[in-house]
């Protein structure tokens, strides 16, 4: 498999951390890339503050901790439990891996395949493998899952950070550190963008099978309230055509009817894959995007690759992973881990990437 830029950047950071200062030409040799590629990588990492450049060489910044220690060669071991390693969580994992490498920590991963009943066993496996702290994105897909499958998290014997997950207010997980995308903000900026283009309140076409879907639905109600808008119709349940072909067709028919009857000229759809299929199905029914319907999708995983590139809300997935790993490493390396420091609930704001569909 061809190595991606993120993996190459991790190797580059590891090399510089081990040696302190390295010539860019030597990095090119060690990485097996051209000098041009090595310089481009160094420039990208230096622009993010991960490295310092000096006269043809690159140095490990003192602010990032001591050089001379290979990542995982003396730093903490952190475990990451994710429900999947593809689509949304691929970037979360990449961000956590990048931060761990930069901070001298070793990251180990387990994937639960969206089986919430197996989460506790996977976490136990991470602890058995040496994890001193845990980053947890449990496999919750329904509103009741945190109560049904979340009690074990509060009893963990190591520092824990929830990733893109929230416990119920006042519940046993409310006092844990967490790092999440602010999906309510993401929905609000999407609705504001459509209203700013002259549309009324958009339709919401959304799934129900993930915490993101639940947050998007709640954010939609909140956004309409803040902007004084009335929904053009009930939320349309979205479905994957592979898993529920009739459900998908029903959603397409409902959107088509709303456009045909003049009830809606805009829509917000969760997620990208459903949005791409919906646009194609609407075109077969004579509804053009953006001519008849302006459309924004939520997630921005593959939105730019659609026939008509889709405007999308992009949660800061990679940054969520980085921030969560940084917070956990800070907890593990603080001089006094028993200090009564306040827990943190960190909310990172999604961005809107405007493309042809609006």
Task: Write a structural description.
This protein has 358 residues and is α/β, with parallel strands linked by helices. It has three domains: 5-64, Arc Repressor Mutant, subunit A; 77-181 and 317-349, Response regulator (Rossmann fold), CATH 3.40.50.2300; 183-314, 3-Layer(aba) Sandwich (Rossmann fold), CATH 3.40.50.2300. It is 41% helix and 17% strand. A six-stranded parallel sheet has the order 5-4-6-7-8-14, sandwiched between helices. Strands 10-9-11-12-13-15 form a six-stranded mixed sheet, sandwiched between helices. α2 (24-31) crosses α3 (35-47) and α10 (245-260) crosses α11 (272-284). It starts with a helix and ends in a 5-residue tail after the last strand.
What does the secondary structure layout of this molecule look like, with pairings?
Blueprint: H1 5-19, E1 21-23, H2 24-31, H3 35-47, E2 52-54, E3 57-59, E4 77-82, H4 88-102, E5 106-111, H5 119-128, E6 133-136, H6 145-149, H7 151-154, E7 160-163, E8 177-181, H8 183-196, E9 203-206, H9 211-227, E10 236-237, H10 245-260, E11 266-270, H11 272-284, E12 294-298, E13 311-314, H12 317-333, E14 345-348, E15 351-353
Parallel strand pairs: 4-5, 4-6, 6-7, 7-8, 8-14, 9-10, 9-11, 11-12, 12-13
Antiparallel strand pairs: 1-3, 2-3, 13-15
Helix pairs in contact: 1-4, 2-3, 4-12, 8-9, 10-11
């Amino acid at each position: 498999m061809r190595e991606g830029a993120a993996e190459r950047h991790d190797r580059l950071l590891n090399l510089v951390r081990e040696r302190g200062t390295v010539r860019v030409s030597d990095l090119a040799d060690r990485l097996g890339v051209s000098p041009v590629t090595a310089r481009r990588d160094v420039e990208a990492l230096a622009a993010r503050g991960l490295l310092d450049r000096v006269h043809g060489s690159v140095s490990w910044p003192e602010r990032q901790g001591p050089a001379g220690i290979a990542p995982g060669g003396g730093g903490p071991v952190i475990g990451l439990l994710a429900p999947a390693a593809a689509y949304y969580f691929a970037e979360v994992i990449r961000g956590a891996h990048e931060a761990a490498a930069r901070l001298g920590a070793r990251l180990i991963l387990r994937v639960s395949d969206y089986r919430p009943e197996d989460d506790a066993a996977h976490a136990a496996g991470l602890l058995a493998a040496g994890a001193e702290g845990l980053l947890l994105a449990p496999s919750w897909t329904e509103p009741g899952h945190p109560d049904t499958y979340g009690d074990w998290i509060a009893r963990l014997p190591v520092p824990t950070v929830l990733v893109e997950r929230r416990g119920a207010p006042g519940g046993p997980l409310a006092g844990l550190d967490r790092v999440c995308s602010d999906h309510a903000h993401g929905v609000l900026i999407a609705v504001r963008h459509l209203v700013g283009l002259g549309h009324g309140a958009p339709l919401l076409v959304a799934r129900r099978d993930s915490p993101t879907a639940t947050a998007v639905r709640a954010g939609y109600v909140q956004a309409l309230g803040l902007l004084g808008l009335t929904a053009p119709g009930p939320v349309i349940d979205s479905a994957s055509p592979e898993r529920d072909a009739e459900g998908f067709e029903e959603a397409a028919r409902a959107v088509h009817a709303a456009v045909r009857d003049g009830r809606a000229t805009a829509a917000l759809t969760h997620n990208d894959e459903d949005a791409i299929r919906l646009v194609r199905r609407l075109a077969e029914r004579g509804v053009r995007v953006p001519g008849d319907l302006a459309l924004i999708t939520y997630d921005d995983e593959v939105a730019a690759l659609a026939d008509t590139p889709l405007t999308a809300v992009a949660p800061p997935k990679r940054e969520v992973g980085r921030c969560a790993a940084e917070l956990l490493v800070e907890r593990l390396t603080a001089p006094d881990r028993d200090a009564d420091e306040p827990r943190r609930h960190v909310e990172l704001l999604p961005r809107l990437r405007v493309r042809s569909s609006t």
